[in-house]
């Protein structure tokens, strides 16, 4: 244990800092880091180097080279820089490389050197050129801040949603500030800059002079400044060699340290651990590294090579041409377990486990000592927590064995934390491997989340490892394996050296019917790569037509899209394609396409009936569908035209169409309607009133009601209305008029073709029993009983029924007999029925 703490360095009395090697770099750099533009992404991210950034020679061999490496020095990409002079490099939160050029254009590259997009920081930056730039991270995304040659600042807080902000001018600023940085306070990005002994804070509205509280006197210039990883703290390096540390709001001073070095440092970054009360700053010169904080003495390291500092959530990464190291504050759990002569529960439990492996009785003594103090649960938890903060697997295993050993003596210790830590460490050890090169710490891993880590593995095209992690952690398929396979498939379609058939088959064999995978998304990526045929083959595997059709339309494969939409049976989808085809094709081609698709043609006709009547007519004409064309003109005669001449003309066109369709009945009916319309107009002109659009029957009825009996009869003859129907019409109309005298004359004009029972029924309907009785006597024998019953003459109806010896009529009369008034009649019928039944 003493050897284990050999690389621990105390900073004051309350904290230790340690530096250990992450990787031995094997990237074969020929230049010193000082001769390159360098950018390293946080959370164990990649490293970008631009070699020879200052050279202006035009020959291709002298162009700068942009190289991207993993954190372990494994090459990921290399490309000649053929664009303009570059001022700054930086990584976005999505691990995209932002390259800021002198003309204010920012080029965005992927992890593998693939160009993504570019954007400009505005005309003012273009005119005044870029002096310096910073890439920073906020809760909204990644931002870019620019210092122009006019000594003005322009920034965008989120390059994903570019909104440029020109910061206020600093009064009296005639040269570049000695140092500046970006800060994020209250969800707003600010710029802090130093001009001589003065500090200015720029926000979107104003430039404010600020003064750090408790700053040592005699400061004439600020040489370097650094903001903590979480933007909560600020450090200022003065020309007097003092380092002031305080809150980023510049309202509170934490401490001040005199490093006795007045030379400006190359880099200054914060080194603090989440939830730790200790605050420390790491300062780097050419060959010296110093850790300073609230302590009289700092920690000094000698740098054998030119190095670069990368601030992290819980420490600082330091890489050079040969090594990559991590410097951080020793976590509390590790400190309590491993510091010399520690009697912490975790330390005793670790010793007990080691003695147990040696089969020594001391194990029992250590264990009893912990149990007597009631600190065994705390000891187990300390060992689990300390294991998470250890980088080397051997030490992780030792601490986890101790925790497992202690758990054996606890009845109700929840195993979740132990199991989860084992899983997390297995994942961390896998991604820390040299060939993977993502040296995440446990704290960074928890802050980053497993989903983001999987995204970063996918970004590095480490699909097998990502899938293994998903399966090991038993993540839901949609969030894990399915999502990764979809990314793999999207990468697969970019391999242009493989045939479309082979790529589609490989993707289908790997994905199958995996839930959560959309073949349409993969096909869209293939189409974006210029592989239209591959996209179509992939869409064959997409089970949802609603996903197939929009992409086929986008690819201008409208006829195939129409076939897919029809196969789906989704009429809305078919209508979508039809409207797209209508706008895309000329009218003739569109109609020819519809003729080959009966279902689509039928749906389009339905659409035209409500929206485009003229198009519907054209469809019928093209198909020589005279029957439907005739029906169309009939509807049009009622829907559009108000003038009688126009309506008759439309009906004549309809009649001609019906004749062509060999539909004699429809043609004759249409011609009759034309005659009726002309007659109705003439009646309106001569008699007044409303006749147009009435049926023949209603026209006859209206004429009778108007007293025009002769005209009604003439109309009935012209339109061949049968006598029975005419008698019914006249009977009903005269009864409605209550013209009983005319009705009687009409009944006597000749023998009624409908009989006289209807006269009885109509009179009774009008509640006129007197008139009804007149006609009851004239009703034929077969309907006599019914007529008498209608007028209420039950006795006579009984006599007639008995005379007819008709059992059904007797039963009908009997059903109308009521109480005492018809008692004798009922007895009479009963006797007659009995006699009939005997015979």
From TrEMBL:
* Subcellular localization(s) per the UniProt record: Late endosome membrane; Lysosome membrane
Which processes are annotated in GO (biological process)?
Answer: endosomal transport; intracellular protein transport; vacuole fusion, non-autophagic
User: Which GO CC annotations does the UniProt entry carry?
Assistant: CORVET complex; early endosome; HOPS complex; late endosome membrane; lysosomal membrane
Major place of residence? membrane
Q: Which terms does the record give in the GO molecular function aspect? A: actin binding
This protein's membrane topology, according to the annotation, is: Peripheral membrane protein
Describe the location of the Vps16 N-terminal domain by residue ranges: 4-420
Q: Where is the Vps16 C-terminal domain?
A: 517-835
Q: Which residues form a coiled coil?
A: 349-376
Q: Which Gene3D superfamilies match?
A: Vps16, C-terminal region
Q: Which keywords label this protein? A: Coiled coil, Endosome, Lysosome, Membrane, Protein transport, Transport
What InterPro entries has UniProt attached to this entry?
Answer: VPS16 (IPR016534), Vps16_C (IPR006925), Vps16_C_sf (IPR038132), Vps16_N (IPR006926)
Q: How does it assemble?
A: Core component of at least two putative endosomal tethering complexes, the homotypic fusion and vacuole protein sorting (HOPS) complex and the class C core vacuole/endosome tethering (CORVET) complex. Their common core is composed of the class C Vps proteins VPS11, VPS16, VPS18 and VPS33A, which in HOPS further associates with VPS39 and VPS41 and in CORVET with VPS8 and TGFBRAP1. Interacts with RAB5C. Interacts with STX17, MON1B. Associates with adapter protein complex 3 (AP-3) and clathrin:AP-3 complexes.
Q: What does this protein do?
A: Plays a role in vesicle-mediated protein trafficking to lysosomal compartments including the endocytic membrane transport and autophagic pathways. Believed to act as a core component of the putative HOPS and CORVET endosomal tethering complexes.
The Swiss-Prot or TrEMBL record describes its family as follows: Belongs to the VPS16 family.
Name of the protein: Vacuolar protein sorting-associated protein 16 homolog
* Naturally occurring in which organism (per UniProt): Neophocaena asiaeorientalis asiaeorientalis (Yangtze finless porpoise)
User: What lineage is this protein's organism placed in?
Assistant: Eukaryota, Metazoa, Chordata, Craniata, Vertebrata
């Amino acid at each position: 244990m003493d050897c284990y703490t050999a690389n621990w360095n105390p900073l004051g009395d309350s904290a230790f800092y340690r530096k250990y090697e992450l990787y031995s770099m094997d990237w074969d750099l020929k230049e010193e880091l000082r001769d390159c533009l360098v950018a390293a992404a946080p959370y164990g991210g990649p490293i970008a180097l631009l070699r020879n950034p200052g050279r202006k020679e035009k020959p291709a061999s002298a162009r700068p080279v942009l190289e991207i490496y993993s954190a372990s020095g494994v090459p990921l990409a290399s490309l000649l820089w053929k664009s303009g002079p570059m001022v700054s490099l930086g990584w976005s939160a999505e691990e995209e490389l932002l390259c800021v050029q002198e003309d204010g254009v920012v080029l965005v590259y992927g992890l593998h050197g693939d160009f993504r997009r570019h954007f400009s920081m505005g005309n003012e930056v273009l005119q005044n050129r870029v002096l310096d730039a910073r890439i920073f991270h906020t809760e909204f995304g990644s931002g870019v801040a620019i210092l122009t040659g006019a000594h003005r600042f322009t920034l965008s807080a989120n390059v994903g949603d570019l909104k440029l902000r020109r910061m206020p001018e600093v009064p009296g600023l005639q040269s570049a500030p000695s140092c500046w940085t970006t800060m994020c306070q209250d969800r707003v990005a600010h710029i802090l800059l130093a001009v001589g002994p003065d500090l200015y804070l720029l926000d979107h509205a104003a430039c404010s002079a600020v003064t750090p509280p408790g700053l040592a006197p005699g400061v004439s210039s600020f040489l370097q400044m650094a903001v903590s990883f979480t933007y909560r703290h600020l450090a200022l390096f003065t020309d007097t060699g003092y380092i002031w540390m305080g809150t980023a709001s510049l309202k509170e001073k934490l401490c001040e340290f005199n490093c006795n070095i007045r030379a400006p440092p190359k880099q200054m970054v914060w080194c603090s651990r989440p939830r730790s009360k200790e605050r420390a700053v790491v300062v780097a010169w050419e060959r010296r590294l110093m850790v300073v904080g609230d302590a009289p003495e700092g920690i000094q390291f000698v740098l054998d090579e030119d190095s670069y500092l990368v601030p992290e959530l819980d420490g600082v990464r330091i890489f050079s041409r040969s090594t990559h190291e991590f410097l951080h504050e020793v976590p509390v759990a590790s400190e309590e377990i491993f510091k010399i002569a520690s009697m912490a529960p975790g330390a005793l439990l670790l010793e007990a486990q080691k003695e147990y492996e040696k089969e020594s009785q001391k194990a029992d003594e250590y264990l009893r000592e912990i149990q007597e103090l009631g600190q065994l649960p705390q000891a187990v938890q300390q060992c689990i927590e300390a294991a998470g903060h250890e980088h080397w697997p051997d030490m992780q295993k030792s601490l986890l064995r101790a925790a497992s050993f202690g758990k054996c003596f606890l009845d109700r210790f929840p195993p979740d934390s132990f199991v989860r830590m084992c899983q997390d460490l297995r994942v961390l050890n896998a991604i820390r491997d040299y060939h993977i090169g993502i040296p995440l710490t446990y704290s960074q891993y928890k802050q980053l989340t497993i989903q983001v880590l999987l995204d970063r593995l996918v970004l590095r095209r480490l699909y097998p490892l990502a899938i293994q992690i998903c399966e090991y952690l038993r993540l839901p398929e949609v969030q894990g394996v399915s999502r990764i396979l979809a990314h793999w498939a999207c990468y697969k379609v970019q391999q242009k050296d493989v045939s479309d058939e082979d790529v589609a088959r490989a993707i289908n064999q790997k994905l199958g019917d995996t839930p959560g995978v959309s073949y349409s998304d993969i096909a869209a990526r293939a189409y974006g790569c210029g592989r239209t045929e591959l996209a179509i083959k992939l869409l064959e595997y997409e089970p949802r037509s609603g996903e197939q059709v929009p992409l086929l339309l986008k690819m201008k494969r409208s006829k195939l899209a129409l076939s897919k939409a029809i196969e789906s049976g989704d009429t809305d989808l078919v209508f979508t394609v039809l409207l797209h085809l209508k706008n895309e094709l000329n009218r003739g081609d569109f109609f020819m396409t519809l003729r080959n698709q009966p279902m689509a043609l039928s749906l389009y006709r339905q659409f035209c009936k409500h929206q485009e009547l003229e198009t519907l007519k054209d469809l019928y004409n093209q198909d020589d569908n005279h029957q439907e064309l005739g029906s169309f003109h009939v509807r049009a005669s009622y829907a559009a035209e108000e003038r009688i001449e126009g309506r008759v003309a439309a009906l004549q066109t309809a009649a001609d169409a019906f004749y062509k369709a060999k539909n004699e009945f429809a043609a004759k009916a249409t011609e009759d309607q034309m005659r009726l319309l002309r007659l109705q107009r003439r009646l309106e002109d001569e008699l007044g009133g409303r006749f147009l659009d009435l049926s023949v029957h209603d026209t006859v009825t209206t004429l009778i009601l108007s007293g025009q009996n002769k005209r009604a009869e003439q109309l009935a003859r012209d339109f061949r209305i049968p006598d029975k129907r005419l008698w019914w019409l006249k009977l009903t109309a005269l009864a409605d008029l209550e013209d009983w005298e005319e009705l009687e004359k009409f009944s006597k004009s000749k023998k009624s073709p409908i009989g006289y029972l209807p006269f009885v029924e109509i009179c009774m309907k009008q509640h006129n029993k007197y008139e009804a009785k007149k006609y009851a006597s004239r009703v034929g024998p077969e309907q006599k009983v019914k007529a008498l019953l209608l007028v209420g003459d039950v006795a006579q109806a009984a006599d007639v029924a008995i005379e007819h010896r008709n059992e059904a009529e007797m039963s009908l009369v009997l059903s109308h007999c009521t109480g005492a008034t018809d008692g004798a009649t009922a007895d009479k019928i009963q006797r007659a029925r009995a006699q009939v039944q005997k015979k």
